[in-house]
């Protein structure tokens, strides 16, 4: 266990040093959600209404927090594929280290990145008028649910990245992240969507986290459906299910590389 922890921390530091040496992708990753908030909050927000009434920017911010956790899958997949293309993965596999340490190091580094992105988005949200009205503990729980979603999606990204054979396949996989993000309650309520589309959006794991955060933050637009009323439960169950499925798949795929 001590060896696993030491190897994991070493590989986490490796990824952090890469970000320091090449900060451009990190900066772009931080600026993109800020630009999206400004675009939807100020350009489109006036044309959008919140079911039940309320400020659209307060409706938007929990969706943006969760959406950023989803879009983080793209950087996870890209990092895994880049390591494979450069031969780093093969070198790690030949070294005397815990076999799962590489994957855990990747997940720890991505979690630190997710926390940094959330801090930037919270500051941006406060500047455009968003506030949490739910109190300290519910607010803390909401951010915990956001990071739980990110942790689960990291393992989805790791597994998909390990399956990819090159940049073309990676680009196709990254494109599929967008429907997952936009076919949700992040920007508009599922109640305003056509029947089957709204049902898909309602059961999207992202929507569960969004609805839970809106409720915990005391922001408008939680929704009145059964899923929305039990959003906190689903915001825990969905990530736990994803972790239970994709951690074993990722470890098995890692161990089977080159076989």
From TrEMBL:
Which parts of the chain span the membrane according to its record?
A: 26-47, 59-82, 103-128, 140-162, 169-188, 231-251
What species was this sequence derived from? Answer: Allokutzneria multivorans
Q: What topology does the record note for this protein and the membrane?
A: Multi-pass membrane protein
What keywords does the record list, in alphabetical order?
A: Antibiotic resistance, Cell membrane, Membrane, Transmembrane, Transmembrane helix, Transport
User: Which family would the database say this protein is a member of?
Assistant: Belongs to the ABC-2 integral membrane protein family.
PROSITE patterns, alphabetically?
Answer: ABC_TM2
Q: What is this protein called?
A: Transport permease protein
Q: Which InterPro entries match?
A: ABC2_TM, ABC2_TM_bact-type, ABC_2_transport, Nod_factor_ABC_transporter
Question: Could you confirm whether the keyword Translocase appears in this record?
Answer: no
- Subcellular localization, per the record? Cell membrane; Membrane
**Chain ranges of the ABC transmembrane type-2 domain:** 24-257
């Amino acid at each position: 266990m001590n060896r696993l922890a030491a190897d994991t921390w070493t590989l986490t530091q490796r990824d952090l040093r890469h970000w320091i040496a090449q900060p451009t992708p990190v900066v772009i990753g931080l600026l993109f959600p800020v630009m999206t908030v400004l675009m939807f909050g100020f350009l489109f927000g006036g044309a959008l209404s919140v079911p039940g009434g309320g400020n659209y920017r307060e409706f938007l911010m929990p969706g943006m927090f969760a959406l950023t956790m989803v879009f983080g899958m793209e950087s996870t997949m890209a990092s895994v594929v880049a390591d494979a293309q450069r031969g780093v993965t093969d070198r790690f596999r030949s070294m005397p280290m815990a076999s799962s340490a590489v994957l855990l190091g990747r997940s720890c580094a991505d979690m630190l990145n997710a926390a940094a992105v959330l801090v930037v988005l919270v500051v941006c949200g406060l500047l455009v008028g968003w506030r949490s009205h739910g109190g300290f503990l519910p607010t803390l729980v909401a951010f915990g649910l956001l990071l739980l979603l990110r942790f689960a999606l990291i393992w989805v990204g790791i597994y998909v990245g390990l399956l990819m054979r090159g940049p073309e396949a990676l680009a196709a996989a990254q494109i599929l992240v967008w429907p997952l993000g936009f076919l949700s309650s992040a920007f508009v309520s599922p109640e305003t969507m056509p029947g089957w589309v709204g049902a898909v959006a309602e059961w999207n794991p992202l929507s569960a986290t969004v609805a839970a955060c809106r409720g915990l933050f005391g922001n408008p637009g939680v929704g009145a459906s059964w899923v929305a009323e039990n959003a906190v439960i689903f915001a825990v169950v969905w990530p736990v299910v994803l972790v239970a499925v994709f951690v074993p798949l990722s470890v098995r795929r890692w161990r089977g590389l080159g076989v």
